[in-house]
Amino acid sequence: MASTCNVVVLISGSGSNLQALIDSISHDDNPAHICAVIANRADAYGLERAKAAGIATRVLDHKAFDGREAFDGALIEAIDAFEPQLVVLAGFMRILTPDFVRHYAGRLLNIHPSLLPKYKGLHTHQRALQAGDCEHGCSVHFVTEELDGGPLVVQAVIPVQPDDSAESLAQRVHEQEHLIYPLAVRWFAEERLCLGEQGAMLDGQPLPSTGHLFRT
């Protein structure tokens, strides 16, 4: 069993993926340990989830800083105070500067509600419906300087139903997010997952360009 892997989670909103991580880590012999949750909004409900779980919280309001670089510099200081091995973006609605991404290269994970490289950015569920896609899903990836473009770790694929709306599709994708994000974090904490020169590596082997695929 790997030694404890300290994790800092960044949030902006309700923190449902944070809750999935908290629930997952509380069971079994998971070496991941969430040592802090940091939000850029004081009203982020995820802060309440963290407090209920006894996790340290910090608020860093991006509006209080003169520009993206200044905020990200302060954010790095706040994160590094907890000495994490992994930083997890869980609904953190900020585009990060290249300096921030480079600082955490190989130890920064994000989850995105589409089957990347499709539908980077926002409104992914509506875009999938408008395109007439028969499949949709979510992706965990290492963060690089390209927005939603880093090497894929794991994707969950769900069928699009004929009567799906953006809301119903989003709900089903959320359910998959809550399964695959804790899995990816656990792989990293167990020292099975890393970012190598060839991309994402699991158990010493390069993952395919799609990451590890789960279909429902």
Topology overview:
Elements: E1 5-11, H1 16-25, E2 32-39, H2 46-52, E3 56-59, H3 68-80, E4 86-89, H4 98-103, E5 108-112, H5 124-130, E6 135-142, E7 152-159, H6 166-189, E8 193-196, E9 199-202, E10 205-206, E11 212-215
Parallel strand pairs: 1-2, 1-4, 2-3, 4-5, 7-11
Antiparallel strand pairs: 5-6, 6-7, 8-9, 9-10
Task: Please provide a written account of the structure.
With 216 residues, the chain is of the alpha/beta class. The chain has six helices and eleven strands. The chain has helices at 16-25, 46-52, 68-80, 98-103, 124-130, 166-189, and strands at residues 5-11, 32-39, 56-59, 86-89, 108-112, 135-142, 152-159, 193-196, 199-202, 205-206, 212-215. Strands 3-2-1-4-5-6-7-11 form an eight-stranded mixed β-sheet, covered by helices on one side. α4 (98-103) links the parallel β4 and β5. The chain is globular and about 45 Å long. It starts with a strand and ends with a strand. The record marks 148 as: Raises pKa of active site His. It comes from Pseudomonas benzenivorans. It holds the Pfam family Formyl_trans_N. It catalyses: N(1)-(5-phospho-beta-D-ribosyl)glycinamide + (6R)-10-formyltetrahydrofolate = N(2)-formyl-N(1)-(5-phospho-beta-D-ribosyl)glycinamide + (6S)-5,6,7,8-tetrahydrofolate + H(+).
Keywords:
globular; GART; 8-stranded mixed beta sheet; purine biosynthesis; 11 strands; transferase; 216 residues; phosphoribosylglycinamide formyltransferase activity; 3-stranded antiparallel beta sheet; alpha/beta
| Structural class category | alpha/beta
Largest sheet: 8 strands, mixed
Quantity of strands, as a count: 11
Strands of the largest sheet, in order across it? Answer: 3-2-1-4-5-6-7-11
Report the helical percentage.
Answer: 25-40%
The tally of helices reads 6
Write the element-wise H/E pattern from the N-terminal end onward.
Answer: EHEHEHEHEHEEHEEEE
Rounded mean pLDDT score: 96
Binding site for N(1)-(5-phospho-beta-D-ribosyl)glycinamide: 15-17
Catalytic activity: N(1)-(5-phospho-beta-D-ribosyl)glycinamide + (6R)-10-formyltetrahydrofolate = N(2)-formyl-N(1)-(5-phospho-beta-D-ribosyl)glycinamide + (6S)-5,6,7,8-tetrahydrofolate + H(+)
Keywords: Purine biosynthesis, Transferase
GO molecular function: phosphoribosylglycinamide formyltransferase activity
